[in-house]
């Protein structure tokens, strides 16, 4: 397929023609926006509370910590950095910047609609984890869990549609709660952590590698959508240094601190006999040492701290749907998405974090990979929107997504191999394949966008 030739005077779709770059004068330092926002994502207890079960029992604490560090570096350098720089240089949001990779029409679906749709998966995970934590905090039964999950999802969706500005003001202070909980856990169990021995004996280096790859897959899968959303964070960055520092502090350091402490706490609790080898949750270790009343306060506090995240998911979904489906009332589209979130929560599907993160990583790994390749191939800049559906982007994504879901397919069809660290493999496939197809000419022509800027 040869490059399609389209006159630069060809009209842009309405959503691109009306896109307005965020001017440099409206931007702020990294420590006021990108870093604290990303750090708040990783302080969410649903992320760090269960990460220990992803590899600690097989490879031990040291291997798991190595996996955390490598996963943090991958998130920053592969998934976040190029999207962040694209946002900084253009001042334009993800659904606009993504059109250089997937086309002016294709960009409405990918990453536009996909980003919005997956937010309801996040809302389901948030509702599940928050309802379960509140149930423990109030000492309720399963019926309470169901009711809380429904109320939590509906309330978050409503606030995301109507009152997100008020939540944003409170969200600045709420991350102090999970940070304090992590410090308490470290003080209680940190001393015995390195006495822990893995409960599953695996010969040679296989145990360590399994542990490292499993931790990486968990972290990168969790970060997938946030990495692509680095474009939106980048629109508020003044220069490349803001983008890089925001990622170093808000992504690398935040991951190492939150996931690392949780692993240390669970390892220490297992080594001291406070919890059995089969227990993966850091909050379960805290329950052993804390008084019943204080533990309930902790669980309620962690839940309250996660509410802004649920609201922001709804807010992002609503904005995405308003862009890609402007004729549909957002109350209807968000309402349908919220119903899906509730179903995921009450059925427990959202509680399978490894599976959820695997799908997210498979979806956004090749998106981030293809966008990074496109950025590099165009001289570290944004080419501008491409016409229609850009074949290089769509083919790269489809193949990368298949690679990313191979572990899930392996469970159904054992003949399909299970790829280690599948979200990373999906990124690599998306990156390499986009580069090859781009060089072969499987790309549509660039459309003129007069209002674009280049910082």
UniProtKB/TrEMBL annotation:
<feature type="transmembrane region" description="Helical">
    <location>
        <begin position="293"/>
        <end position="318"/>
    </location>
</feature>
<feature type="transmembrane region" description="Helical">
    <location>
        <begin position="30"/>
        <end position="48"/>
    </location>
</feature>
<feature type="transmembrane region" description="Helical">
    <location>
        <begin position="389"/>
        <end position="409"/>
    </location>
</feature>
<feature type="transmembrane region" description="Helical">
    <location>
        <begin position="330"/>
        <end position="350"/>
    </location>
</feature>
<feature type="transmembrane region" description="Helical">
    <location>
        <begin position="94"/>
        <end position="123"/>
    </location>
</feature>
<keyword id="KW-1133">Transmembrane helix</keyword>
<keyword id="KW-0812">Transmembrane</keyword>
<protein>
    <recommendedName>
        <fullName>Cytosine permease</fullName>
    </recommendedName>
</protein>
<feature type="transmembrane region" description="Helical">
    <location>
        <begin position="356"/>
        <end position="377"/>
    </location>
</feature>
<feature type="transmembrane region" description="Helical">
    <location>
        <begin position="212"/>
        <end position="233"/>
    </location>
</feature>
<feature type="transmembrane region" description="Helical">
    <location>
        <begin position="245"/>
        <end position="273"/>
    </location>
</feature>
<dbReference type="InterPro" id="IPR030191">
    <property type="entry name" value="CodB"/>
</dbReference>
<keyword id="KW-0472">Membrane</keyword>
<feature type="transmembrane region" description="Helical">
    <location>
        <begin position="421"/>
        <end position="442"/>
    </location>
</feature>
<feature type="transmembrane region" description="Helical">
    <location>
        <begin position="143"/>
        <end position="161"/>
    </location>
</feature>
<feature type="transmembrane region" description="Helical">
    <location>
        <begin position="60"/>
        <end position="82"/>
    </location>
</feature>
<feature type="transmembrane region" description="Helical">
    <location>
        <begin position="173"/>
        <end position="192"/>
    </location>
</feature>
């Amino acid at each position: 397929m040869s490059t399609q030739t389209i006159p630069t005077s060809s009209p842009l779709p309405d959503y691109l023609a009306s896109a307005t770059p965020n001017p440099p004068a409206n931007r702020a330092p990294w420590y006021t926006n990108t870093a604290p926002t990303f750090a708040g994502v990783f302080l969410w207890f649903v992320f760090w509370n269960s990460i220990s079960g992803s590899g600690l029992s097989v490879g031990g604490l040291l291997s798991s910590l190595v996996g955390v560090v490598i996963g943090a570096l991958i998130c920053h350098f592969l998934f976040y950095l190029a999207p962040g720089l694209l946002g900084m240089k253009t001042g334009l949001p993800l659904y606009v910047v993504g059109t250089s990779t997937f086309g002016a029409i294709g960009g409405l679906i990918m990453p536009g609609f996909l980003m919005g749709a997956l937010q309801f998966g996040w809302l389901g995970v948030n509702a599940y984890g928050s309802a379960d934590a509140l149930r423990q905090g109030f000492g309720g039964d399963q019926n309470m869990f169901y009711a809380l999950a429904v109320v939590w999802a509906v309330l978050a969706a409503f606030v995301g549609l109507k009152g997100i500005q008020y939540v944003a003001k409170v969200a600045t202070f709420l991350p102090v709660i999970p940070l304090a909980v992590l410090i308490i856990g470290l003080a209680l169990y940190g001393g015995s952590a390195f006495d822990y021995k893995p409960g599953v004996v695996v010969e040679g280096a296989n145990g360590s590698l399994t542990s490292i790859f499993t931790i990486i897959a968990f972290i990168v899968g969790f970060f997938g959508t946030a990495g692509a959303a680095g474009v939106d964070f980048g629109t508020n960055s003044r220069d490349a240094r803001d983008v890089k520092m925001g990622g170093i502090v808000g992504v690398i350091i935040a991951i190492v601190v939150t996931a690392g402490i949780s692993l240390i706490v669970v390892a220490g609790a297992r080594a001291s006999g406070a919890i059995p080898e089969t227990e993966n949750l850091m909050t379960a270790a805290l329950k052993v040492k804390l008084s019943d009343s204080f533990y309930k306060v902790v669980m309620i506090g962690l839940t309250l701290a996660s509410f802004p995240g649920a609201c922001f998911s709804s807010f992002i979904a609503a904005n995405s749907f308003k862009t890609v489906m402007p004729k549909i009332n957002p109350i209807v589209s968000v309402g349908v998405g919220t119903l899906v979130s509730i179903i995921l929560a009450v059925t427990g599907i959202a509680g399978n974090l490894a599976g959820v993160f695997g799908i997210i990583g498979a979806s956004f790994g090749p998106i981030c990979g293809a966008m990074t390749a496109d950025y590099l191939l165009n001289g570290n800049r944004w080419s501008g929107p491409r016409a229609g559906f850009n074949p290089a982007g769509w083919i790269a994504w489809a193949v990368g997504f298949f690679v990313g879901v191979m572990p899930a397919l392996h469970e159904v069809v054992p003949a399909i191999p299970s790829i280690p660290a599948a979200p990373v493999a999906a990124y690599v496939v998306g990156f390499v394949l986009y580069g090859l197809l781009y060089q072969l000419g499987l790309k549509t022509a660039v459309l003129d966008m007069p209002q674009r800027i280049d910082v």
